[in-house]
Amino acid sequence: GIKSCLICSQNNPLRKKPPGALKPIKPPDGIWQLLTMDFHGPITPTTKNGNKYIISLTDVLSKFIITKAVRDCTATTAARFLIDEVILKYGTPKCILTDNGTHFTAKMMTELFKQIGITHLYSTPYHPMTNGQIERFNATMDAKIAALSNEKRTNWDEQLPFVTFNYSTTIHRTTNQIPFELIYGRKPILPFDQQQPLVTLSQDPEHKTKLNQHLSVLTEQAKTKILEQQRKYKERYDRFRTNPTYKINDIILIKTLNKRNKFDIRYEGPFKITQQLGKKTFIVQHIKKHTLVRQVTIDVIIPLYERKSMD
User: Fold this and answer.
1) pLDDT at 126 over 50
2) Can you name the residues that pair with 121 across neighbouring β-strands?
3) How far is residue 257's CA from residue 241's CA, in Å, rounded to a whole number?
4) Which CATH architecture has domain 34-193+203-237?
């Protein structure tokens, strides 16, 4: 059969939905407790300033985002961004979730997280829930930047701050809240917004208490909305999906993460399962290249069946 052939298995698209039910990330209790950090790119064309990547950091609860156009995706660039654009402007996050890219796993980043006191969490590179939000933002960002950029798209880095501000000052469909308001406790006053008086001086001695109460209500509403959206998304995602079981020593193939072109193989391998870390996470080792070891989730695994003898 078709599944018994390694080459066929690696190249034929799966017509059914990928296996494994979805396990959403529980929204944190407060702002700046869990954030995701990501590099997007390389973006073509490179700008006049030599920038070809966007590094971004998103607060999971508020959806507030910080971005910067950068020339490379190194650990040095990630560390500089975290210090200059995040910590020195907004304070230190409690936990940051990243993928396993070398720019985030490098010793420099590990030491930085340790010294500052940030808990560094890793997502598996294929996981749909941890990366869905990032991918949707990147798609939104790309479309808006393209609309604002010049004809040759060589000034997209100059448009990035405007697009980021627009994203953070618009009601987010998941939380039904404005990210800016969840961070600052007030609605953003936009350019040319004439509804506000020029100067307002509050004499209310309970201003701080009221502000905290207001933020508390907004935060709870955002959490409720996120959980509601996750439930709906999980229902859609899990529909008609099977929950396969794998065990140590099973031979499998892994979905190719970064296909360079449409002719690249869809599945890499074969790999052998050497360790199970959780219900849906495994450590696998390549059958021939023993130094090639990966951590993967169940949704990117397909079994490789041995061809039965025709004798």
Assistant:
1) no
2) 97
3) 21
4) 2-Layer Sandwich (3.30)
- pLDDT at position 18: 56
Alpha carbons 169 and 153: distance in angstroms, whole number: 24
Burial of 110-123, coded b for 16+ CB within 10 Å and e otherwise, reads: eebbeeeebebeeb
Task: Give pLDDT tens digits for 59-118.
Answer: 988 899 999 999 999 999 999 999 999 999 999 999 998 888 888 888 999 999 999 999
214-218 contact pairs (CB < 8 A, 24+): 214/185, 215/31, 215/182, 215/185, 218/177, 218/181, 218/182
The CATH class of the 2-19+244-303 domain is mainly beta
State both tokens at 15. Answer: 């017509």
Nearest to 172 by CA among 125, 218, 113: 218
- HSE-CB at 212 with a 13 A cutoff on CA atoms is 4
Instruction: Give the helix/strand (H/E) hosting 57.
Output: strand 53-59
> Hey, where are the domains in the chain?
2-19+244-303, 34-193+203-237
3-state SS assignment for residue 251: strand
Question: 């193939």: which residue's tokens?
Answer: 253
